[in-house]
Amino acid sequence: MASNKITIGNVEITSLSDGILEFDLCNFFPSIPSESWGPYEDHLTEEHNVRFNLACFLVRSDGRNIVVDTGLGPRPADAPETPWGELLNDFSAHGVKPEEIDMVVMTHLHRDHVGWNLQAQDGRFIPTFPNARYYMSAIDWDATHDPSLQHDRFPNAPDCVWPLQDLGLAELIDGEHSLTSELTTLPTPGHTPGHMSIMITSQGERGLILGDVLHNTVQVHETDWVSRADIDPEQTRATRRSLMERLEREGTTVLSVHLPKPGYGKIGRMNGRRYWQPLQA
Ligand SMILES: [Zn+2]
Q1: How many angstroms is it from 258 CA to the middle of ligand 1?
Q2: What percent of the chain lies above the pLDDT cut of 90?
């Protein structure tokens, strides 16, 4: 079992989780014929579903505590069996208090990355991380306000994202933005228009928090396989192709939100095919 902690130079990362999400293959990859999955059965569950971890990376850099992505959020009262809603339990299991967090960074504004930003209490929203500022892409912020996208693509933005601005906590960022001296955002658009990954550079080592450039390990090689969650399919493919080539070439450590826990790995190559090589502790 791989450890949930990793270091990149002086930066320490802990992989926490809000639980899992699971989808029927035809539902999540409607454009990929089921026979194309033949050689890739081992990338699916026994029931032939795609399963995602909902990672939240706790990053310590420059003396700051940074949370990257906040899962799907509290379990609905009428759905006690839901396999997600675990993030704050995982925080306490690892001895981390929400008030210790200085920055929350969202790779993008889809519902499974913003869920614990805020909590409703007595008819108002209060920040789950009371001492944090919340960083997000200005392009994605605008997309959540596009009436043609909001309802289907960003359904929980009105409750989980928009109130951050009224509370004076929102930081809208763009391009390659330095979050600390060791963390810089890297625009990786396609899945959402403002999607970003986060490059970690410290002591000559490199890591990349990927965001949703990958949803399944199969896409490391089959870079053209887009899912229904990818808003712009062509841009998604172009971003994924060039990023997988670069990560393979540079040997960068990858920190993936949705691949199996804890989500650490490298992009390897065997018999002419690129593959996900999980890091062992
Ligand atoms: Zn996602």
Answers
A1: 7
A2: 89
